[in-house]
Amino acid sequence: MSGSATIEGLRKFRKKLLRERDPWHDTSRRFRIRRFAGPECFLDHLEGVRVAHLTDLHVGRVTPMEVQYDAVSMTNAGKPDLVVISGDFVCHSQVYLDDLTDVISKIDAPVFAVLGNHDHWAGAEPVRKALRRGGAEVLDNSHTTITIRNQPLQVLGLDDAYTGHADHRHALKGLRSDLPVIGLSHIAEEADALWEEGVPLVFSGHTHAGQVTVARLHELSVGRLAGHKYIHGLYGSRGAEDPKGAVYVGAGVGAAIVSLRVGERAKREVAFFELGTQPGAFDEHHQEQEAHPGRVPSTKTKERRAEAVRRKHERRERRNGNGKRPDLNH
Ligand SMILES: [Fe+2]
Prior knowledge:
The chain has a single domain (30-296), classed as Metallo-dependent phosphatases (Purple Acid Phosphatase, chain A, domain 2, 4-Layer Sandwich), CATH 3.60.21. 30% of the residues lie in helices and 18% in strands. The protein has helices at residues 3-21, 65-77, 97-105, 117-122, 124-133, 168-172, 191-196, 217-225, 299-319, and strands spanning 31-37, 49-54, 82-85, 111-113, 136-138, 142-148, 151-157, 181-184, 201-204, 233-236, 246-249, 268-275. A six-stranded mixed sheet has the order 1-12-2-3-4-5. Strands 6-7-8-9-11-10 form a six-stranded mixed sheet. Helix 3 packs parallel to helix 5 (124-133). The chain is globular and about 65 Å long. The chain starts with a helix and ends in an 11-residue tail after the last helix. Bound molecules: fe (ii) ion.
């Protein structure tokens, strides 16, 4: 080995050491892969269907692109039949949309997506287009049916509830009760109503598992302060008992502000769900957890969130030299 190659090797090693010692800038590529069975009610309809769940990619400046491609590699390595991604594809701008398209295009299975609050803040339609260019199907309060080895499975997607874009009635219209269905919603608390409507498994994100889970800090930040019932992992029930449904909140892949992730539950995550497999048939990371008390957002909070979307749109329009108030229905 030449002298310069040795120095370069030492430089890389030092950089790696520094990075791993500094949790505030966790640009490490450490992921957790978690595996769970689907609900019991799927046993009569599905056999050997594997869903990969990713969420909160936040493609942008904060999360290295290597992390995004690692997430894709781990997803592909699990050989899923379909991939569901529950929102927040970008951070605060449209600068990285081509990168987002490239990441999505590298997934080797059909991709279904719903938008999150960051996507609406950054501009919903350009994000949708970037996802579609990458080959994803974006479900905006709608559902579709995928057939996997002659087994039909409905996939329902709610648009983002945080910014006031979720429309359950529209999403559920025409849903068949004789076929199995999984749901997607950026905000996990929407699952409560979806269970009532016969959607027994919902995939969500938004919380990033709190990003700091040591000393149960995530329960304080995401649970007590932000008012979420579902913080990270599996909640509800996969059996026939009440509630008649489960929700999985993924820890996410990226971040929009700081990439800090401290604690086992806070690690970046790819989750696999085996539909048509009995819960308990293999070792799962954890069982269904008790929901936290949570807090339903007030009307004032909802109005403030919707106004934030309008303000961001207007600011962007002004920057682009177009002063018109945006039509948020488009
Ligand atoms: Fe997010």
